[in-house]
Each structure stands twice: as C-alpha cells, then as structure tokens.
Amino acid sequence: MTDLTRISAAALADKLAAREVSSVEATQAHLDRIAAVDGDVHAFLHVSDHALDIAADIDRRRAAGEALGALAGVPLAIKDVLVTTDMPSTSGSKILEGYMSPYDATVVARSRAAGLVPLGKTNMDEFAMGSSTEFSAYGPTRNPWDLDRIPGGSGGGSAAAVAAFEAPLALGSDTGGSIRQPAHVTGTVGIKPTYGGVSRYGAIALASSLDQVGPVTRNVLDAGLLHDVIGGYDAHDATSISEKWPSFADAAREGARGDVLKGLKVGVIKEFADAGFQTGVSASFRAALTTMQAQGAEIVEISAPHFEYAVAAYYLILPAEASSNLAKFDSVRFGMRVDVPGGTVEDVMAATRDAGFGPEVKRRIILGTYALSAGYYDAYYGSAQKVRTLIQQDFDAAFASVDVIATPSAPTTAFRIGEKIDDPLQMYLNDLTTIPANLAGIPGISIPSGLAEEDGLPVGIQFLAPARQDARLYRVGAALEATLVDSWGGPLLDRAPELLAREGGVL
C-alpha cells in the first residue's frame, strides 16, 4: 500500500480527486507520522484538533459531486507567524502564548477555501528573528537529516515538517531568507514570491517592507500548486499587487517537460566568489551550473558591487521596522501582562516586555530603536535605505543582461545546535545570499542541488528573477530539478540518514 506521507502533494491530490483515498485517510496518515516523529523533530507547536473533521467535510463534499480545488483534501502545515482562528498564534514568543486570533490570515483563509486541511502550527524563531529556530521560546526544532543540527530559520518548523514527511505542504514567511535558507539545509523547496504577490494580511509583522509569505514543499510543482492558492490581490494588504498572475503550477509543468534551460542566461555574481562558502556548498553549486550548461544554459559573470553591504543595511532596516511593529506588545493592547504591585503603566510595560521577549528580540529592538532615534536616523536608517536603492539598481543592471541570477542558497550546510547561538554576527551571515532579494522585493527560489561532500548534508541552489517574474523561477527550478532528480535516481530526501536509520523511516 502506498505510504501517503511519502508521495508528493500533486500525487496525493490526484489520488484524492480519483477517490482512490480519502482526505480522512491522508490526514490521519500525517497525524500518525507527527505522533511518531515530532517528539524528536519538534516541528510543530500545536497540532489541530479539527483536522479530521475538516478532512471529513472535504470527503463529503467530493462525494456529493461538488467542484473542489486542485489541492482539496491535502494536509497543510502553517508557520506560527500566520494567525488562525482555531489554533493559537504565538509567533514563537512567550508574549503571545495562548493567543487566539479573531480572524484568519488571508493565506490561511484562501487555503481553507481551496480545501486544504490545516494540520497545525509550526515552530519558528521568535517573531521570525533568527536563522536556526533556536530562538523559539518553545525550544528548538531539529533537522530531520541530523537531529543534532539546526533546520534553518526563522521557518525551521515548516521546513522540518515537510522534510520529515509530517506534511506534504507548508506555509512560511521570508523576511531575509526564512523560507529559502531552511529549504537549503533540509533538502526541500522554498519560494519567496515577489513582494506584494502574496498577501501579508494576518502575518504577524516583523519588517513590513521585507516580509513575504510563500510555500515550502518537497518539489517545485507542489510549490506552484500552493502558490496558485495563496497568491493574488488582497484588498486588506495595501502593498498587494493588483495585476493578474499566471499559473505557477503550469509554469513548473512547462519547466519539467520542456527545453527551458536551452539558451537561458544565468548570472553568477563575481563578488560572491570570495565569500567564504563551505567547500561542499561551492562544489554543489558549480556542479549544478555545469548541469545547466549541459542542457544549453549560458553562464554569465555579473557584478553586484553593493551586495557586500546588504547584510549591514538589512540589520539596520529590519530592527528599525521591528522596533516599530513590536511596540504594540506592551501589556495594554496585545500579549501577556506582568503585574507590578504599586507600579506605573510604564513599570508594567517594562516588566512584561522583559519577561515576554527573548534575547534576540530584545537585541534587535534595541538596535532598531537606536537607529531610529533623534540624531542617528539619517546616519543609520537613512543610509541603509540608500544602500537598499543601490542594491535594487545592481539587480536592474544585472537583469538587463541575464534571465536569472544563481547563487548558493546559504553559505554552509546545517550547523550544530548551539554552535552559533552566542555569535550574532555569524548567525546573521547565514542570510548573506538571500537578503538582497528581500531588499529589492524580487522573487527567489531554493531547490536542492545535492549533498555536501564533507558532511553529506543537503545543499540548495537559489535562483532570482526580476519582480513579477515568479513564473520564470518555477520554469527554471523545475527544469533543473527534473535533471538532478533523474541523475540521483530519486528525490534527495530519500537519502536522509536520520529518516532512513530506523525501520519504516520513523525516527
């Protein structure tokens, strides 16, 4: 009998549509998988009490002949940064412990309307501040490839859930790489859409000019199917793009079967040549480029001279916006409250924020408040925004001569839990290659490119495209994926040692 947790979302959707299996069966299989392995992985903060009821309703509607969406009945994991009415929404923070939202995030509402079955809420770095999911107030998530290693961040829970076959699909958010970097270290696929292409309404804000919601999956087609569900204009989001988008699933199918790579101009950034990437990461990246060349792609060296300032600019812009966005968690309007007998409102606010926020959140609030303070605004925040404009201009110049830009998705494979937690700079540098896309608002995709030779851990290759050209990434990503998977003899995740170490793939 087919293991319903191991097949793709697209294959599962086909079985559901053909009524070969029921949504209840598919959902139960994933709930059983969560029960079996999540004690080790800790991908989920909350597992839904309503998943089987929702699945049963989908089965009833299908049996009645109702027209359903392409993914109807397929289970879905949801990053805890996205608010939900029927499950707590904590953003990985004690200050929101137990918070129940009165409304669903737009992407959650669209997923429900399309018939997807929410399995639960996934773990994350507190308020999406981190690259390892070690900064969750509820404990770290572990990488299914090696339980002593991080699953990336901030969306490590979503990536680990997909990699551990606890969910075929997941929703994440990407402010500086929080979808793509976890995809890199877990052997999954992650998409950061064009800014404004997917609604941020109901995503607990970190940095409003950088945040973007997107899919986390095991292959490019599944990502396209989920992107088709969650994308498009939303009047609740003032930054939402109103133009009509093409089908990203169709773009992925086109890439998998066509000669998409023939004649494609792929830009490689010369400034990243000396960026100190791990040997296995660089080797996998070069091998992927060689594969693309064999398929007819042209590799073009390009210059992005201001990318070296991207991390510094980002870590001024993000903390400044975070400082503003998190001001509402003050014991009066939102979040927990620590009473101070005889104290003033300010005393209660200070005690609440001290107890409710973790060390990384406090660090960034302090940085951001300082960058926005009188006398420093122009020198820090203002200068960072100027650098942002220069990075956008670098992208404009590059895309005048190439179709996509390729980089390693992150500088290293998954590091060990605790290895970098006391070194903020080294933690921040994990987003070296992903941050520029957020600063420019352009789309990016990370797909698995192989295993690093020195540690056998997954490596991803990132492709970037001009704004609104997300479909191009799906075509290119699916084309390379098809070639690589064929050369590997099957999906990369089938080779995960922790997943295969025990009978039946149970941790």
Automatic annotation (TrEMBL):
It comes from the Bacteria. The keyword Transmembrane does not apply. Gene3D superfamilies: Amidase signature (AS) domain (3.90.1300.10). Keywords: ATP-binding, Ligase, Nucleotide-binding, Protein biosynthesis. Its EC number is 6.3.5.7. It is an enzyme of class 6 (ligase). The active site is at 79 (charge relay system), 154 (charge relay system), 178 (acyl-ester intermediate). InterPro entries: Amidase, Amidase_CS, Amidase_dom, AS_sf, GatA. Residues 25-473 form the Amidase domain. The keyword Nucleotide-binding applies. It catalyses: L-glutamyl-tRNA(Gln) + L-glutamine + ATP + H2O = L-glutaminyl-tRNA(Gln) + L-glutamate + ADP + phosphate + H(+). Heterotrimer of A, B and C subunits. Belongs to the amidase family. GatA subfamily. Allows the formation of correctly charged Gln-tRNA(Gln) through the transamidation of misacylated Glu-tRNA(Gln) in organisms which lack glutaminyl-tRNA synthetase. The reaction takes place in the presence of glutamine and ATP through an activated gamma-phospho-Glu-tRNA(Gln). This is Glutamyl-tRNA(Gln) amidotransferase subunit A. It comes from Microbacterium marmarense. The lineage of its organism: Bacteria, Bacillati, Actinomycetota, Actinomycetes, Micrococcales.
